[in-house]
Write the structure tokens for this entry.
Amino acid sequence: MSKIKKAVIPAAGFGTRFLPVTKAIPKEMLPIVDTPTLQYVVEEAVKSGINEILIILGKNKKCIEDHFDISVELEQLLQRTGKTDYLKQVHDISNMAHIYYVRQKEMNGSGMAVLEAEAFVGNEPFAVLYGDDIIYNPEKPCLKQLMDAYETTGKIILGCQNVPREEAPKYGIIQPGNTKGKYTEIKKLVEKPPIDKLPSTLASIGRYILTPDVFDILKHTPAMPNGEVCLTDAIQTIADTTGAYAYTFDGKRYDVGDKLGYIQATVEYGLRDENLKEGLKKYLKSLKL
Ligand code: G1P
């Protein structure tokens, strides 16, 4: 079985839930404390041992490329002014991994976004990470857990967690087959089911290990009435044929594509920051709510 060496991060959405800021700034560049959400996702891939990353861009995403590029003027300025901590931080970002970009010309769904990665991926299994989900696990990154699960099963893997019942309709939900510990066979993956038709509360959380047969499947997957081709439909085809697993990963997950989830992530990452935590704690305690 080939090892997973490549990751794909779709970042082509409009970010409508965060308008007006996303009119000119990609939602992936919104910061949690001082770091763009997309950088957390790239770091998760890098810490999992991946150093070939393709970011799928939409329109107006030039600042994403700039963020991961070297910034000679800024580095010279930081050098001249002796700000060596910042210099290291800025330089390390441009050195994290080999990052490539492709532009998705039409906004025609998560399936078509992933199809843009075909030439980059070639004939190997690969990871897909959605930028709306940030997963905190300082011991073992979520993606590494899924890569290990793939080595165990040899089947495609979806990173999953149980979510509260009332939130389940926001997700792709697993209809479970056999379950053993953290592994659940996927019978069906139902995209955003209504609350009275939930097959379970085990939700797919924006982390996938896929095999390259997904590309041909995507080319033959019919678009939904809104014209979008959904990655979920192609995954269902794989689950029906070669099989697929949900893996319940360990880690605290933040839905940073949602305003409340974004604020929660900001507060909790702030509380983890050595320089901020005392001041922030004091401030939070002072709020008479
Ligand atoms: C996408 C997927 C869905 C998954 C979710 C996780 O939905 O289609 O299956 O549960 O990401 O964040 P979206 O949030 O893009 O609507």
